[in-house]
Model the fold of this input.
Amino acid sequence: VRPRVWVSQPLFGDIVGRLREHFDVIETAAVGKHPQDEIAAMLASCDGALVTLNDRIGAAEIANAPRLRAIANVGVGYNNLDVPALTQAGIVVTNTPDVLTETTADFGFALMMAAARRITEAERWLRDGQWKQWSFETMLGGDVHGTTLGILGMGRIGQAIACRAAGFRMRVLYHNRSRLRADIEGTCRAQYVDFDTLLAQADHLVLVLPYSPAVHHLIDATAIAKMKPTATLTNIARGGIVDEDALADALESGRLAAAGLDVYEGEPAIHPRLLALRNVVLTPHIASGSLATRRAMVSLAVENLTAALGVGPRAGDPPSPVNAAALGAQRKPGISK
Ligand code: GLV
Ligand code: GLV
Done:
């Protein structure tokens, strides 16, 4: 009997279709967040799953899924998955790093620039019919070139943003759990500083760190109070890193010049105070969303799932496992625990 895999929402059909070579594929037609009991019901009969950040999977969702051996997340961030619980159960988890790095860095840079130069605010004003005459003082923003860029989280995406900053002759400061090797710092022309120095010196602060409970509301009122009032804050990581109430306070009072947000704590719901503010650029979690990159992400996830289920050219050796430990202790096919 062929292993069965669940694809949790419509993805590129021509790419996902490759799974049919080895597996029975069940595709859910509905887009968005599925009820947790529906997720559990789907996993109950499956050997593998191709999921997105919409799908939260932990101990409860796999409790009745004895055959489940692999979950391929289409995305680099995997805070939707309880990796320790899945590892414990012998389920291999994979993500899609690398293929989205440059596209996501492009978008982070664009969002930062849009916030600093008030691009979407100016466009809304123009479309509103408010542009009656050209004036010297219309929509004055802050500069990007020659300023100090602060990058919080210096993984692959952070490094790619740092490379872009060189073209704008920016000084690049970063903070990260661990300091980069000196040769990588050299390539990125980035200087390591502590968190408070990063907050105090950045003209533009960009968040690119993975979410974990340890960084929940890391950017709160206390952190924002340490930033320059002329600074911008851009978040392309995860919404939960920023205390949105504190951010709205700061944007309202002029304690912070502007923000660019692609991610939100309760997405797709947006904090009503952020929606009402002019000095924040709001986009719907699309930083990795070029057509080519989204296709590459699905392709990599398909390759990961196939390999993690022990078939195809890389059987047993998925390109980007998150919990390499589980590979050695993976559940055996079709055997209940
Ligand atoms: C998207 O947010 C991702 O983590 O890939
Ligand atoms: C994750 O955010 C990365 O930097 O690859």
Summary: The longest strand covers residues 148-152.
